[in-house]
Specification:
alpha+beta, 4-stranded antiparallel beta sheet, 3-stranded antiparallel beta sheet
Amino acid sequence: MSHNEKDYIVEFDDNGAACKRPDGSEERVNWSDIVKVTLEATAGVKEEAPAHVWILWGRDNASGCVYPGGATGAELMLLEMKSRLDNFDVGAVAQAMQSEENKTWLLWQAAGVNTPEDDGRVIN
């Protein structure tokens, strides 16, 4: 990751969530389009990689947000997801934060929705 994690800005409103990247680009996803939320612990696989990466998966992989755990606003986003997404797995968040493994935790998944898989999405 070529920038400080705090240089990524995570925001939300009544419509959805956004991640503003240091290069000026932005990812957005509507709350109604989120089908899965995962938290990836990188276990220091790459020195420049963030320790944790949040992924909000949009329907049909058409939208979404990817941001490092240290992003500005990440703590508020966690509280918002707990509030908006029924059965959001706070216990899995705690496990991921304490993990020394390179592993992805499923924190929430929409009922009855086939979730997209995209191993190519990474933090720059």
